[in-house]
Every structure is written in structure tokens, then in C-alpha cells.
Amino acid sequence: MLLIDGDIIAYRIACACEGDEVGSSYYKSNLDSYLSGVLLKYPEMEYIVYLTGKGNFRHDVAVTAPYKGNRDPNSRPTLLQEVRHYLLEAYDAVVINGCEADDAIATAASTLYLGKAVMASIDKDFDQIAGVHYNFVKDIEYTIQPWEGLLNFYIQIIVGDAVDNIIGVDGMGNVGARDLLQGCTKEGDLWEICVDQIGWDRALENARLVWLQREAGQLWEPPECSITKEQSE
User: Fold this and answer.
1) Strands, E assignment, the chain
2) Burial class (CB in 10 A: 0-12, 13-18, 19+), 73
3) Span 164-187, mean pLDDT?
4) In this prediction, what percent of the chain has a pLDDT beyond 70?
5) Could you tell me if 1 and 113 are in contact, meaning their C-beta atoms sit under 8 angstroms apart?
6) Confidence class of residue 217 from pLDDT cuts 50, 70 and 90?
7) Which has the closest alpha carbon to 77: 15, 127, 23, 17?
8) How far apart are CA 14 and CA 30, in angstroms?
9) Where are the beta strands (DSSP E) in 31-80?
10) In whole angstroms, what is the distance from residue 36 CA to residue 57 CA?
11) Cβ-count burial of 35 within 10 angstroms (0-12 exposed, 13-18 middle, 19+ buried)?
12) How many degrees, rounded to 5, is the angle at CA 106 between CA 171 and CA 133?
């Protein structure tokens, strides 16, 4: 099953068509052409396009800074809603409420279509998910192994995500975080390093914000390890 990140595609098409009049159909042919390139990469696969809908549990999780609070809602491309509507109308896109399209893709790839899915996106957040990935901008297919995906997730905890307003360790980038975690062989050790870097509460907050759900309604919990919250304070 080809699991397509419709949020990314809708935004890119809407930006590409910025300046066109609302009601113009040009964006439709642009979108059809764009999506056909993705679908032709996997002609024998069925596909599902996912879009983020209303509500997101992460807004309740975020304490240090509002989740995506650094985004200006007025900066969205003018045609974004029209493009999204066309994805619903022409491609039977599935709208995900309460979380994000990313969570639904991760859940589908990890359960229903385990070992039989391709995740199509350019979002680096998907690199925490084991399986086959397709970057449709660079036209690159690659595979993430389970431990590699887990390591990428813990790197995200430390680094945070400036795009989503998730605050990580000041001055720490992916290379530095990877160096910190590289020698670990157990998940508990990865978690202990994260706690050492930003404290238990902040590490848990970041983890729950960056974690892509593997099942509906999931809220990430720390692994068993030698350190407890009380010991870390």
C-alpha cells in the first residue's frame, strides 16, 4: 500500500499556484500531474492519501512552548483549502482528526500494512518509522531499519523541531545529538541520555510531541531503564 502525505503535496501545489485566482482550475492539472508522478513510481500498488483534519492532542501535550505556535495562520497559501478539497473529491483522501496525517501513516505502516507499505513524503519525521520510504521530490526510495528509526526518534527529542516550535537543547544539531547517542545499544540508554540533556519532564514532553503514533490514541511512554523521574530531579 502506498501511503501518501497529502498535507505536504497540498501545500506544495498551493504554493506553486499562488497568484492564480481562487476558483481557477489550473491547480487541478498541476496536482494531477504531480500525483501521477508519485503513483507511476508504484503502478501495481493501491494508495491512500492522508490529510490532517481538526484537533491535535499535541496542543495539550506542549507546555514549554505552544505546538506550532510560531506559525502565522495568515501566511498559508491562498488556494490551500481548494487543493485539499480536490484531493478529497478526486483522490478520496482520508481526513484524520485528533492527531495528524503523519500519525495515521505511521500507524498504517506499523500495523495494517506492516512490511507491505511505502511511506511517500519528504517529511524527516517519518525517518523514525521502520520500513520503506519514498521521497517524491528527490525521487529516492530508501529503507529505515528498526534501530535506525529508534535512534532518529531520540535524536529528535534532543534537537527538537524549530518548524513545529518544539524546543530542544540550545545549540544542539542532528550531528551532535547522534554523536551523543551513537554508542548506545539499548533503548533505556538512549532515554537516559535525553533525560540528562534536558531533564525528565522536558524529554517526555518532546518525546510525546515528536513521536508518530503506531496505534490510534497512543501517548508515548518512556522505556524501562535504570533511571526514574525522581532520581533525575
Assistant:
1) 2-5, 47-56, 94-98, 118-120, 131-135, 140-144, 160-161, 166-167
2) exposed
3) 94
4) 94
5) yes
6) very high
7) 15
8) 10
9) 47-56
10) 33
11) buried
12) 80
The closest alpha carbon to 108, from 3, 8, 209, 6, belongs to 3
Using CA atoms in the order 213, 215, 218, 222, what is the torsion angle rounded to 10 degrees?
A: -70
**Read out DSSP for 182-230?**
TT--SHHHHHHHHHHHH-HHHHHHHHHHHPPPSSTT----PPP-S--HH
Average pLDDT over residues 53-74: 93
Q: Which three cell numbers stand for residue 176?
A: 551532535
Q: Which three cell numbers stand for residue 16?
A: 506553486
Residue type, 35: L
**What distance in Å separates the CA atoms of residue 161 and residue 168, rounded to the nearest whole number?**
7
CB contact burial 58-70 (16+ within 10 A = b; e otherwise)? beebbeeeebbee
Higher pLDDT among residues 184 and 25, named by residue: 184
Check if the beta carbon of residue 119 is closer than 8 Å to that of residue 3: yes
Residue 159, amino acid: V
DSSP state of 165: T
CA 60 to the chain's CA centroid: 18
Cα 44–Cα 144–Cα 166 angle in degrees, nearest 5: 115
Q: Name the pLDDT band for 227 (thresholds 50, 70, 90).
A: low
Of 25 and 211, the one with more pLDDT: 211
